[in-house]
Design a protein that fits this description.
The complex is a heterodimer of chains A (635) and B (210).
Chain A (H helix, E strand, L loop, with lengths): L22 H23 L14 H19 L3 H7 L26 H29 L10 H19 L4 H13 L7 H19 L17 H4 L3 H29 L12 H32 L13 H35 L6 H14 L18 H10 L1 H15 L8 H24 L1 H7 L3 H31 L5 H28 L13 H32 L59
Helix pairs in contact in A: 1-2, 2-7, 4-5, 4-6, 4-7, 4-19, 5-7, 6-9, 7-9, 9-10, 10-11, 10-12, 11-14, 11-15, 11-17, 12-14, 15-17, 15-18, 17-18, 18-19
Chain B lengths: L19 H34 L14 H22 L3 H28 L8 H36 L11 H34 L1
Helix pairs in contact in B: 1-4, 1-5, 2-3, 2-5, 3-4, 4-5
Classes of the chains: A mainly alpha (635), B mainly alpha (210).
């Protein structure tokens, strides 16, 4: 039995590549699956409902079956059924599929097990839906230019809010780990692949299927629940809510399996010498996050399964009049939902600390403290979810516990800040574009964290709950934390991933416009929240229009800064294509010792690690490599 | 272990350590138990939450009592399946193949019996909080169990093919091939045993406590 690769078939060439298992086949089978599901659903219920007309919301069974069979068809078309069927017939394991460079660009449109291909798929796929979700935010702010309804109407506005929130939260759960952990973690620990490489590809394509399904909600009347999908609004919603359920369930599946794969990879596939105390801090961030993904996401899937059953087979999990409770959903959702916040934040912390050592030219200050901080956040995030329900009539005796547990989480978060500051202290700081994004992360996340104390504190939360204050808080943590770390990672690692360096000048324009516009957009929301402006309401007090218009114009400026980034990507990666140096940042971590582009097999020999990961400012011992020296394709 | 198909011709590529993949299976088998624990913990939470609330006395609307006989039969089939497979997995690969086939058969029978129970039940999904938890938990348990059965069947089929092709050497030090196979059997039997333990918990809550 071969544990590694055996793909005997020669790659197809030219137009023949369109035949076989690829994205095109997947889309065709996905559409076929959708119609088949509709047909079966209509047959089961005896209702022939055409959702494209005006009868939305009448046959959830056919919609759910349509989505389910559509996703299955899509995955079968991509080739995900082939290997499981072969294994069912007793064929030996084969870990590699469509990894050869001879497959060309078609590798990116099908099931490929090369972790670097999957990472790039993630980067582009997530990028596309990030921009779609961002566009929704622009539309929201357009509606809020005037205090009364003037563009979309209340239902459409709420659907936009829900799509923006769901897509951002769902997409960006894998926003940092998808591209960066998939690409970097195997290399950083001295492995050539993820433990279950086919699963890695599966998590990406399932996520993409979910994103497309969410977009289809607009054909079915949308959903008015926001990203949290609260009951009983959900149960009362049109078939557009089915799209929400299916989307988030697929996101949950993708997250769970991705986390599982990462934990197994990091636990079992570290090369010789890569002890736990030598793991790069980014890998620790990924590890802490992966545990959360693996364990929290199943609760989301279960909560949504219950919601789906209420809408299809008439169970009553969330129907108060029939023995259910809407609060059951709220509880289950937030048991997942609060760890989810740290799923978004932790990888960003890892990236920022990783990059600060490079651009401060110092070893990471307080490595063990930073690890303790990350694991502490992971652990404590399980004990805070009830703070989302402070004003939902929970037992008053429970409030102090959840207030304290939430405030306690600021301690391990403080560790991360301390380590960041300690690393910068007396460092030889280089203000490159990635470093600027890291420094902005510190600023933004600090504000997000401080404002979070107000939300964790019962008396102040009762006042600010459900207001724009809360919205400002989580945009500071999630956008200010995650998105800035995302761009730091892009500017830093793209030269290695794509072999082309992004324009530094355009990058700085992107950074400054984004940083200023971001703060100009979200800082005034704190004030609006204190004035009492509620979230998810299409109209507002006319006296707040001035601030709202300011915020909307600032939000457009964020959009413009994203266009600068897009232009930079197209200009640098497509038009100019200036080859990047092998190690443009003079970094000392292992990925920079590999050639550009990195070969499919990463290293000729499995590296052996014999030193700490951040030997900046430390003179190398003669005859001893500071980090593993991978043989094969020398830098 | 062979080199990757994508390796450059004529260049020596060091294979990855042979113990990595078996170790990944061992750890993966345990971790996936964590994931399913949290999945089914949602139903445990729903059970106690709705039972404790008992809104408008709608925990059970009408005569909501599932047939305990069918419940015992389903639980017994799962339990027998897990015990046989787990015990065999600790012995020889020959035992594992036969036990794996029995386990798959018993597991499929349990799934079939579950769906037969839905047909003969005296209450519907809308009969209160208990009915919701009953249908939700048992149906998702049956569906998830198919994945475990698939995993066991893969081990059985692989064993069958390896033995047929004469590549199994039980008396020697395991090759990387047999080590991987044994790791798969061990991991799948551990997972299946754990999964069935959750099923027994479901039986206790839904039939005895509920």
């Amino acid at each position: 039995m071969s544990a590694v690769a055996v793909s005997s078939a020669a790659p197809r060439t030219g137009w023949r590549k369109l035949w076989g298992f690829n994205m095109l086949t997947g889309i065709l089978l996905g559409i076929g699956g959708w119609f088949l599901g509709q047909l079966i659903g209509n047959h089961i219920t005896g209702q022939d409902v055409h959702y494209y007309s005006a009868q939305a919301g009448e046959n959830d069974i056919s919609v759910m079956l349509g989505y389910t069979l559509g996703v299955i068809g899509f995955l079968v078309g991509l080739g995900f059924a082939n290997y499981p069927l072969k294994r069912l017939l007793g064929h030996p394991p084969a870990l590699a599929e469509r990894e050869s460079e001879a497959e060309g660009v078609f590798r990116y449109f099908t099931l490929s097990t090369d972790h670097k291909v999957v990472a790039k798929q993630y980067m582009v796929g997530i990028g596309v839906f990030f921009f779609v979700a961002g566009l929704n935010a622009m539309l929201i702010r357009t509606e809020l230019l005037q205090p009364n309804v003037h563009v979309f109407g209340a239902n459409q506005y709420l659907t936009l809010v829900g799509m923006h929130g769901s897509m951002m939260m769902g997409t960006m759960t894998s926003g940092l780990l998808g591209p960066f952990a998939t690409w970097l973690v195997p290399i950083m620990i001295g492995s050539r692949r993820m433990a279950f490489s086919r699963l890695s590809a599966f998590t990406f394509w399932v996520l993409m299927a979910g994103e497309v399904i969410l977009l289809t909600t607009i054909f079915f009347g949308g959903f008015q629940t926001g990203w949290t999908g609260y009951q009983p609004l959900g149960a009362e919603g049109t078939a557009g809510y089915d799209a929400y359920i299916m989307f988030f369930a697929l996101v949950g599946l993708s997250m769970c399996l991705f986390g599982f794969n990462l934990v197994v990879t990091i636990t079992t596939m570290r090369a010789r010498g890569m002890t736990w105390s030598r793991l790069p801090i980014f890998v620790w961030g990924a590890y802490g996050t992966a545990w959360l993904m693996m364990l929290a996401a199943p609760m989301l899937i279960a909560a949504l399964l219950m919601a789906g059953m209420d809408r299809t087979v008439q169970t009553a999990f969330y129907i108060p009049g029939q023995g259910g409770s809407a609060y059951l959903f709220e509880n289950l959702f937030w048991v997942f939902g609060h760890p989810e916040v740290y799923i978004l934040a932790l990888p960003g912390m890892g990236i920022v600390l990783e990059l600060m050592t490079v651009f401060a030219r110092k070893p990471l200050w307080g490595y063990r403290l930073a690890v303790a901080g990350m694991l502490g956040i992971s652990f404590l995030s399980w004990f805070v979810w009830q703070h989302h329900l402070f004003v939902s009539g929970i037992n008053a005796d429970l409030r102090p516990f959840y207030m304290l547990s939430t405030e306690l989480i600021s301690l391990p978060t403080g560790f991360i800040f301390l380590c960041a500051m300690g690393t910068l202290w007396r460092g030889r700081i280089r203000f490159t574009v990635p470093m600027l994004f890291c420094l902005a992360w510190v600023f933004n996340f600090l504000w997000g964290g401080i404002s979070g104390v107000f939300n964790s504190d019962v008396p102040s939360d009762v006042t600010t709950h459900g207001s724009f204050f809360t919205m400002a808080h989580f945009h500071y943590t999630i956008m200010g934390g995650l998105i800035f770390a995302f761009f730091a990672g892009i500017y830093y690692w793209v030269p290695k991933m794509y072999g082309v360096r992004l324009s530094e000048r355009l990058g700085k324009i992107h950074f400054w416009t984004l940083f200023i516009a971001f703060n100009s957009t979200f800082a005034p929301l704190f004030a609006l929240g204190f004035m009492g402006m509620p979230r998810r309401v299409v109209s507002y007090n006319p006296s707040w229009q001035g601030l709202n218009d300011w915020v909307s114009i600032s939000a457009y400026c964020i959009g413009l800064s994203m266009l600068v980034f897009l232009f930079n990507v197209v200009w640098s990666l497509v038009v100019k294509r200036e080859p990047a140096e092998v190690n443009p940042w003079h970094a000392k971590s292992i990925e920079w010792t590999l050639p550009t582009p990195v070969p499919v097999h990463d290293f000729d020999e499995i590296p052996v690690f014999d030193a700490d990961p951040y030997p900046y400012g430390i003179e190398p011992v003669p005859g001893r490599a500071p980090v593993a020296a991978p043989v094969g394709g020398r830098a | 272990m062979e080199a990757s198909a994508s390796a450059p011709v004529g260049r020596h590529i060091e294979p990855e350590p042979p113990e990595w993949q078996p170790r990944a299976l061992w750890v993966g088998g345990r971790l996936i138990c964590g994931s399913i624990s949290f999945f089914f913990a949602s139903f445990v939470f729903a059970f106690f939450y709705l039972k404790a609330l008992d809104l408008n006395h709608n925990w059970k609307i009408g005569n909501v009592v599932p047939d305990a006989g069918i419940g015992i039969a389903i639980a017994a089939l799962y339990l027998f399946s897990a015990v046989v497979y787990r015990l065999a997995a600790r012995r020889t690969t020959g035992d594992s193949m036969a036990a794996g086939m029995i386990a798959v058969f018993m597991g499929l029978a349990a799934v079939a019996l579950q769906f037969i129970q839905y047909i003969v039940l005296d209450f519907g999904a809308a009969s209160g909080g208990y009915a919701a938890v009953f249908f939700g938990w048992t149906a998702s348990y049956a569906v998830v169990s198919l994945m475990g059965l698939y995993w066991i069947q893969v081990q059985v089929a692989t064993l069958w093919r390896v033995r047929r092709e004469g590549r199994m050497r039980e008396t020697e030090v395991p090759t990387s091939e047999t080590a991987l196979l044994l790791a798969g059997i061990e991991a799948s039997s551990f997972y299946w045993g754990y999964f069935v333990a959750i099923g027994v918990l479901a039986y206790i809550l839904l039939y005895l406590v509920g």
